[in-house]
UniProtKB/TrEMBL annotation, chain A:
SUPFAM superfamilies: 2Fe-2S ferredoxin-like (SSF54292), CO dehydrogenase ISP C-domain like (SSF47741). It holds the Pfam family Fer2. The keyword Iron-sulfur applies. This is Carbon-monoxide dehydrogenase small subunit. Residues 1-81 form the 2Fe-2S ferredoxin-type domain. InterPro entries: 2Fe-2S-bd, 2Fe-2S-bd_dom_sf, 2Fe-2S_ferredoxin-like_sf, 2Fe-2S_ferredoxin-type, 2Fe2S_fd_BS, Beta-grasp_dom_sf, Diverse_Oxidoreductases.
Automatic annotation (TrEMBL), chain B:
It comes from the Bacteria. Residues 1-161 form the FAD-binding PCMH-type domain. Signal peptide: none annotated. GO terms for molecular function: FAD binding; oxidoreductase activity. It comes from Pseudonocardia thermophila. The keyword Oxidoreductase applies. The keyword Transmembrane does not apply. This is CO or xanthine dehydrogenase, FAD-binding subunit. Pfam families: FAD_binding_5.
Length: 165, 253
C-alpha cells in the first residue's frame, strides 16, 4: 500500500486511498460521507460516539476531526475495525437493538479487545463500561453490550493463550 | 475558503497565526464542533500536529513542560491529575485528543483543566509578534489569546499531592459548575472555578493552610474569600473535602 502524502491531502479509509479537500471546514465525518462511507452521525460534537472511527489505530469520533487532520493518516471504519469475536458475541447476547450506536461501539470495543485481551491482559466489566463512556445507547441499557464484550474478551484471551502454547 | 497549514516549527506557526482570522488547531475537539455548529469560515486553520517538540513532556527539577500537542490522557501527566487519568474530563476518546494547552486557551469551551493547572502554579509559554512571553494560566482572556498568538507549552510544578473536587450534574460527562483544586509542593497552591466556562481564581495565601493537617478551616476561609457571594458556602464545603483528601487520601472525601 502506498503511504498517503500529507501535502497531497490524501488518507486511506479502510485501506483505500482517498483524496481530502484542500480547503474548507468540514469534519472527517462530512468527507467520509462525500466518499460514500456511511456512518451514523448523532450529536456532531463528540458526545454520542456513533461516528467513531480509528484514526491511525486510535478511536475518535469522526465529527471531532477536521478533515485536514486526517492527511497522511489511516482511517478505519467499522467495516475493517470490527473484531469478529465481538460481533459474534454481540449477536449472541442481543447487544444490538436499533443499531444506530453499534458501529461506534464496535469500533471502540474492538480496539479495547485488541489492545488488552489479545495481548493477554484481562478485561473486566468496569473496563468495558469505562470504554463505553462517550457512547450513547438509548435502547440496550448497555448490560448486554458489556456482557458481550467480556465474553468476547475471555474467548480472545483463551485463544491467545492456546496459540502461545 | 479556509486554508490549512501545517507548520514544522513554532516560528512558522506564529507566522501563520498572523494571517487574518487564523484559528490554531491542537486536538481540535472544541474547534471542529465550533466550525460545524456555527458555519464559521476562518481564513486559515493552523494545525500544530507537525510542529517539532509539540508532543513532548519534559520533566526537570520537579517541574514539567507540556508541549501544545500533549493530550489530556498522556500517562506522563498522571501526577498532575492525582495519579490517574482525569475521568471527570469529557470522554476517553476526547481525552486522547484534547490537549492540555489547547483546553487552557480555548475560546470555544470551558477550560476544564485550568483549576488543576493553576493549583500547580502553571504558566503558559506564548509566542506572539513581540516575542515569547510567559503568562499565568488563569490570565487567558475569555475570548482566547490575542490574534497571532500561539500557546506553545505549559510549565508547572509536579505536585507532591493534589486534590480536585467539583460540583457537576454527574461524576462524568458533565462540566464543572464549581471546582476547588489544591496541591502540595514547591510552587503549588489552590484555585477555584466558578460557573461553566467561568473564571478560575487563584486562592491567595492558601499554601500555609494546605501544609498544615489542621489547616482545613483556614483553607476553607481563604477559598470562600476568593469566591463570589452566591457560591461561598459550596466553595467552603468543597475546600474542606479537598483539604481532607490531601491529608487523608485513604479517607472519605
Amino acid at each position: 500500500m502506498t503511504a498517503p502524502d500529507v501535502r497531497a491531502a490524501t488518507c486511506t479509509v479502510d485501506g483505500r486511498p482517498i483524496t481530502l479537500p484542500q480547503t474548507g471546514t468540514e469534519s472527517l465525518w462530512d468527507v467520509l460521507e462525500d466518499h460514500g462511507v456511511a456512518l451514523p452521525l448523532g450529536c456532531a460534537s463528540g458526545h454520542c460516539g456513533s461516528c467513531t472511527v480509528l484514526l491511525d489505530g486510535v478511536p475518535v469520533p469522526s465529527c471531532l476531526v477536521p478533515h485536514a487532520e486526517a492527511r497522511g493518516r489511516s482511517v478505519a471504519t467499522v467495516a475493517t475495525a470490527a473484531d469478529d469475536a465481538l460481533v459474534a458475541a454481540m449477536a449472541e447476547h442481543g447487544a444490538v437493538q436499533c443499531g444506530f450506536c453499534s458501529p461506534g461501539i464496535v469500533v471502540t470495543l474492538s480496539w479495547l479487545l485488541r489492545t488488552t485481551a489479545a495481548v493477554g491482559q484481562p478485561i473486566t466489566a468496569d473496563d468495558v463500561r469505562n470504554a463505553l463512556t462517550g457512547h450513547l445507547c438509548r435502547c440496550t441499557g448497555y448490560t448486554a453490550v458489556v456482557q458481550a464484550a467480556v465474553s468476547a474478551a475471555s474467548k480472545i484471551s483463551a485463544a491467545s493463550k492456546a496459540a502461545d502454547r | 475558503m479556509t486554508r490549512h497549514v501545517f507548520p514544522a516549527t513554532w516560528e512558522q506557526a506564529g507566522h501563520a497565526a498572523l494571517d487574518g482570522d487564523a484559528v490554531v488547531v491542537g486536538g481540535a475537539t472544541s474547534v471542529q464542533p465550533w466550525l460545524t455548529s456555527t458555519g464559521a469560515q476562518p481564513s486559515v486553520l493552523v494545525h500544530l500536529r507537525d510542529v517539532a517538540g509539540a508532543r513532548s513532556v519534559d520533566g526537570m527539577a520537579g517541574r514539567l513542560r507540556i508541549g501544545a500537542m500533549v493530550p489530556v490522557a498522556d500517562p506522563a501527566l498522571r501526577p498532575v491529575f492525582g495519579g490517574t487519568e482525569p475521568v471527570w474530563f469529557a470522554t476517553p476518546a476526547v481525552r486522547r485528543r484534547a490537549t492540555v494547552v489547547g483546553n487552557a486557551v480555548s475560546p470555544f469551551g470551558p477550560r476544564e483543566v485550568v483549576p488543576v493547572l493553576a493549583a500547580c502554579g502553571a504558566r503558559l509559554v506564548v509566542l506572539a509578534e513581540g516575542g515569547t512571553r510567559s503568562i499565568d494560566v488563569t490570565a487567558v482572556p475569555p475570548n482566547g489569546l490575542e490574534p497571532g498568538a500561539v500557546a506553545c507549552a505549559a510549565e508547572l510544578a509536579v505536585p507532591e499531592r493534589i486534590a480536585f473536587r467539583r460540583v457537576a450534574l454527574r461524576p462524568r460527562l458533565s462540566r464543572t459548575e464549581i471546582g476547588v483544586a489544591a496541591a502540595l509542593g514547591d510552587g503549588c497552591g489552590a484555585a477555584i472555578s466558578v460557573g461553566v466556562g467561568g473564571p478560575t481564581l487563584v486562592v491567595e495565601g492558601a499554601a500555609e493552610f494546605l501544609r498544615d493537617p489542621a489547616g482545613s478551616p483556614g483553607f476553607a476561609a481563604a477559598c470562600c474569600s476568593a469566591a463570589p457571594d452566591p457560591v461561598r458556602q459550596l466553595v467552603g464545603g468543597l475546600a474542606v473535602r479537598v483539604h481532607r483528601a490531601l491529608h487523608e487520601p485513604g479517607g472519605r472525601s
